[in-house]
Amino acid sequence: MNEQPYLHEVLILLVALLVFVPLFQRLRFGAMLGYLTAGVVIGPSVLGLVGSGDETKALAELGVVLLLFSVGLEISPERLRLFGRRTYGLAITQVVVTTLVFAGCARLAGLEATSALVVGGALALSSTAVVLELLKERGRMTGQLGRTAIAILLVQDFAVAPMLVFVNTAGESGDKLVGALGISAVKFFITVTLLLLAERVILRPLLRLAASAGAPEVFTGATLLLVLGAGWATDQAGLSMALGAFLAGIMVADTEFRHQVHADIQPFRGLLLGLFFITVGMTLDIGYASQRAGTLALMVVGLVAIKAVLLAGLAALFGVPRDRALSLGGYLSQGSEFAFVLLALAAHRGLIVTEQAQLLTVAVGISMAVTPIGVLIVRRMLSAREREAPSLLGNLEQERSEISGHVVIAGFGQVGMAVARYLAGEHIPVLILDLSTRRVTASRARGLPVFYGNAARIDVLRAAHLDRAHALVVAMPESATAEQVTTVARQSFGDLRIFTRVHDEEWVRKVQQAGANAVVPDGLTTALDLAERVMLFYRPEDTE
């Protein structure tokens, strides 16, 4: 009987994945730590069931390539325009300052300047997966805190590309780093130029041809060809496959095919990326880490504390309110999944020794696991201030406990204000939700029924007594947020009338599918159109 030695290793990997990942997700530690733990258990340091063969490493590298491609897909011009210059200034400053601070710490620990800079860059990044999950759980994705955090994460993701180039170049150049970086910069410029030309000449025709075939597998094949082709091109240029995939993702993000491409690569990305994290776990020597438990504990505390303080301090300098600045520090204080990628590559290139990479990797993993605790500590610190907030921002439960037949307006910008003014003139009771503390405080000082609350959260909508409301008007300027609020409201209040504002015609169908009774694109008469639709269905007995 022919033996396939790699087959039993694949089976062990899949069994470990099925055992550890669901367990860790149920414990709310996240899938990534489940992958790492699975790798540790089946790897040489514990059970020794699987070795780190070339086949496994090759598949794991493909996972990193697809990860960078999907990150590139997120960096579309539409999404980048959502954030202001001050937010991007904060994000860029955070990456630079945090990199330099951690590089200085690494130098004090005895690392060479180049190696210290690599470690500083790796530790400056925060975990997109962990932060987004925490924001989603707490209903803060669409608020000002969520938008600022997402902008910082996007800039950090973008910074991974030059970091990959730096690590590759530094590992190969030795003492001639400056000259090698200059050559890499030229190669990078030429490669980007060629890829941009390819986008105009090849990319869109290729995707249109694949889409016109009417066979999903053809489009998926074209997507993989694009990812691997761009990765191969940058690899041949002496850069890295991951960089090419990242650039390919940015190019696809500017096309109408980005959503389908993202859906097609998601299964491959998830499985292969999980395999990468398992291989990272397999390289960790738990015995070595346990012998240095004191050092490891100091590294974790230092990593979390330094990042939290730097982020909160920089946010305050950029004009972010104190509470939100402290919250940013709590949410973004952990290490990143990209740190695993950069540290593994740095160890492979000989920039840091294996033992150092292992300790840093374990510290990053632990920092990700304890992030919810850090967020809880920050919330406790702010609890006294939050208890005072109802007097300034309103208390829905106490102040509007008997209201019924009213119209809830989500968003109190210019459109929301105009709708509220029109309905008030028709003697229709309104209740308004907004996430700007300044706007809510100023409006309540004028006696307006405005309350601080995230309309994308079901508990806030219930507190606004949407079950007894006549209608919901979603007047927020961001179409994605409006779609989210509409979806949540429709799923929980099936008979409610929902009238939603969107940025442009492209969002009309999406929001209709989310459950809106009527959708009004932005224009000169947006507020009037929304108010008239409310009046069209309004009956005086609703207020009785």
CATH C-level class of the largest domain is Mainly Alpha
The neighbouring-strand order within the major sheet is 3-2-1-4-5-6
CATH topology of the largest domain: Na+/H+ antiporter like fold
Shape: globular
The whole-number mean of residue pLDDT values reads: 77
Terminus-to-terminus distance = 82 Å
User: What's the tally of helices?
Assistant: 26
The overall number of domains is 2
Number of strands: 6
Helix coverage percent of residues?
over 70%
Q: What are the main properties of this structure?
A:
544 residues; mainly alpha; Na+/H+ antiporter like fold; Rossmann fold; six-stranded parallel sheet; 26 helices; 71% helix; disordered C terminus
How would you portray this structure in words?
The protein contains 26 helices and six strands. The protein is mainly alpha-helical and 544 residues long. It folds into two domains: 5-15 and 29-49 and 66-381, Na+/H+ antiporter like fold, CATH 1.20.1530; 396-543, NAD(P)-binding Rossmann-like Domain (Rossmann fold, 3-Layer(aba) Sandwich). Helix 21 links the parallel strand 1 (407-410) and strand 2 (430-434). Helix 3 packs across helix 12. The protein is globular, with a radius of gyration of 26 Å. The protein starts with a helix and ends in an 8-residue tail after the last helix. 47% of the residues are buried.
Write the layout of secondary structure elements.
Elements: H1 5-26, H2 31-42, H3 54-74, H4 77-80, H5 85-108, H6 113-124, H7 128-137, H8 144-173, H9 177-212, H10 216-236, H11 241-253, H12 258-283, H13 286-291, H14 293-317, H15 322-331, H16 337-348, H17 354-369, H18 371-381, H19 383-393, H20 396-399, E1 407-410, H21 414-425, E2 430-434, H22 437-445, E3 450-452, H23 458-463, E4 471-474, H24 479-492, E5 497-502, H25 508-514, E6 518-521, H26 526-536
Parallel strand pairs: 1-2, 1-4, 2-3, 4-5, 5-6
Helix pairs in contact: 1-2, 2-12, 3-11, 3-12, 5-6, 5-8, 5-14, 6-8, 6-16, 7-8, 8-9, 8-15, 8-16, 9-10, 9-11, 10-11, 14-15, 14-17, 15-18, 16-17, 21-26
